[in-house]
Design brief:
This protein has a 7-stranded parallel β-sheet with strand order 3-2-1-4-5-6-7, sandwiched between helices. Helix 6 links the parallel strand 5 and strand 6. The protein has about 260 residues and is an alpha/beta fold. The mean pLDDT is about 95. The protein folds into 2 domains: about 10-185 and about 225-250, Rossmann fold (3-Layer(aba) Sandwich); about 190-225, no CATH class. It has 9 helices and 7 strands, in the order E-H-E-H-E-H-E-H-H-E-H-E-H-H-H-E. Helix 3 packs parallel to helix 5 and helix 4 (about 105-115) runs parallel beside helix 6 (about 150-175). The N and C termini lie far apart (about 40 Å). It is globular.
């Protein structure tokens, strides 16, 4: 029997990158999925990919920055599948740059999706998670523990999400819901490819050299793959990971140097 057979999982930011990899991995484990992101076309491509492999998924296009949308996603999931077992809060990208060049709107947008979207979806799904003894997994980021001058918004949002995880883990003990967070480091996504391309242009080197220099400068073992994160997610929300509660798990190739 597949380890997630019959489980119902919501995955936000599920149309590409880490979210897409998580969706494919949980579907492979037998979970029935609701994938959420803003772009319906990209979402539907992932749904088709899952269906062609024998899995079950549906898409709900939604902008989770809008306060009413997380509740709509939770309601659509219950309507489709009868309950909710797993919520993976993965959506959200924050603007990088010089602090003095970042506007109030940049900061508000960073918190609106990644933090408040996760808060609202967790709240909207909580009653169903209590019934199922389910799991919430927040995909935060290494910047929440190791801030950087070019990542003031992202580091602050991620740190808030880690604090939220710890607080909700205690609520989860009371209500029988598992709550944890994963902190990915540098992962091979579209955003990373853009950063590497800028290094290629600035230093007039090839892509392989740019990646090697990036890894050396970051003092990490390698650049991570979305599938690395997806495999860890499957473990945490699966039966082997149930003793994890309030855990903030780094998967970053060694970028986090603090205890």
């Amino acid at each position: 029997m597949q380890k997630l057979e019959g489980k119902v999982a919501i995955i936000t930011g599920g149309s590409r990158g880490i979210g897409r990899a998580i969706a494919l991995r949980l579907a492979h484990g037998g979970a029935r999925l609701v994938l959420c992101a803003r772009g319906p076309e990209a979402l539907n491509e992932v749904v088709k990919e899952i269906a062609s492999a024998g899995g079950t998924a549906l898409s709900v296009a939604a902008d989770l920055r809008v306060p009413s949308e997380p509740a709509r996603v939770a309601e659509a999931t219950v309507k489709a599948y009868g309950g909710i077992d797993i919520v993976v809060n993965n959506a959200g990208a924050t603007k990088r740059g010089d602090f003095l060049q970042l506007s109030d709107d940049d900061w508000a947008d960073g918190f609106a999706l990644k933090f408040f979207g996760a808060v609202r979806l967790t709240r909207s799904a909580w009653s169903e998670l209590k019934k199922s003894g389910g799991s919430v997994l927040n995909i935060s980021g290494a910047g929440g523990r190791t801030p950087g001058p070019e990542f003031t918004i992202g580091g602050s949002v991620n740190a808030a999400l880690l604090s939220f995880t710890k607080a909700m883990a205690d609520v989860g003990i009371r209500d029988g819901v598992q709550v944890n967070a994963i902190n990915p480091g540098t992962i091979r996504t579209g955003r990373l490819q853009m950063r590497l391309a800028s290094i290629v242009e600035e230093q007039q080197i090839d892509l392989a050299t740019a990646e090697r220099r990036f890894v050396q400068a970051a003092q990490v073992t390698r650049i991570g793959e979305p599938e690395d994160v997806a495999s860890l997610v499957a473990f945490v929300v699966g039966p082997e990971g149930r003793f994890l509660q309030g855990s903030l798990i780094d998967i970053d190739g060694g970028s986090t140097k603090t205890i």
